[in-house]
Amino acid sequence: MGIFTRSKVSRKPNESMRLIITTFVGVVFGFLIGVSFPTLSFTKLNLSSSILTSIDFSYTQYKNSGPSNSTHVPPPIGNNGSSANVTSKKIWVPSNPRGAERLAPGIVRAESDLYLRRLWGKPSEDLTSTPKYLVTFTVGYNQRMNIDAAVKKFSGNFTILLFHYDGRTTEWDEFEWSKQAIHVSVRRQTKWWYAKRFLHPDIIAPYDYIFIWDEDLGVEHFNAEEYIKLVRKYGLEISQPGLEPNKGLTWQMTKRRGDREVHKETEEKPGWCNHPHLPPCAAFVEIMAPVFSRDAWRCVWHMIQNDLVHGWGLDFALRKCVEPAHEKIGVVDSQWIVHQSVPSLGNQGEAQNGKAAWQGVRERCKKEWTVFQTRFSRAEKAYLKELNSTSH
């Protein structure tokens, strides 16, 4: 045991010295190897793209592209969304849409569309067609047969959009066209409520004309493509089909004339028109089946009030959105419809104080008309007053 102990102690200095020498030699050898070969770059290695993320690879390219490099490589986008720009320049473009001033103009997409896209494949190959027109119907399932007949009057150049006020949407798949239509469902809402919230001008910008129609329209004598041709021919920015004259008309202006393609003015009852170029004798269509050009709708959308859902009073104010209104608003006689006057949406109200549901809805319509007229008049007077005060 004594011999073993003495031998172990005597070898310790030799082992320590050997470890020190080995470490020193390794450091010197590594240094010599390092200075003997050129510096390696990630960009010179044939690495799989799975090794470096796209962000890392882009950053490597950016760091290795010096001023002498003729190909400009944009700086990468960091995890926080900021640009890794060594010059620390900030983007601020006042002409961009509000809220997008910090974005480079080339990435801003201020407008959208209602075109349906796939979940697979190349985005550039998604669209086999791009409809030029949009037609919307505010519907209940009970009127499905009437809507089916109406939709068939619109060609493949139209996007079909149904607003469902009764909450029933999947049942419409009994019609083949419904599977390609767009369905928006919110119970007990009117078409103007839907229009204000889902038909923003920047969302439907691709469409030349927008049809915003009721569900109770007979279309036996109507063809949408022929209607568009006449609207273009006569320069109508806001229009509607003529109405069958034997179905209880309210206004003479919207009554179909059998001897012409289009009319833009009429004669009304004595005292109804302050001027022959003003509503309801001219520059006037009703709100049951209006058709708007893209530019006209941009103006009309801004005029629709958020809280006034029935749209009463809009028909008398549409003239403010085109100039001259008596030339650009008219009725297309040769493509006409029948207003069937089905009080379906009216029955979506609630009976109160002994009054039927439809009576409450009608009273609300009349009140909204008065409120809208008051707001419109006050807004114009306030603007003109301010304009006069600043001009002096």
UniProtKB/TrEMBL annotation:
Q: Which UniProt keywords apply?
A: Membrane, Transmembrane, Transmembrane helix
Q: Name one Pfam family in it.
A: DUF707
Keyword Transmembrane helix attributed: yes
Q: Where are the transmembrane segments?
A: 20-40
Domain of life, per the record?
A: Eukaryota
Q: Which PANTHER family match?
A: OS06G0727800 PROTEIN (PTHR31210:SF68), OS06G0731900 PROTEIN (PTHR31210)
Q: What protein does this entry describe?
A: Uncharacterized protein isoform 1
Organism equals: Theobroma cacao
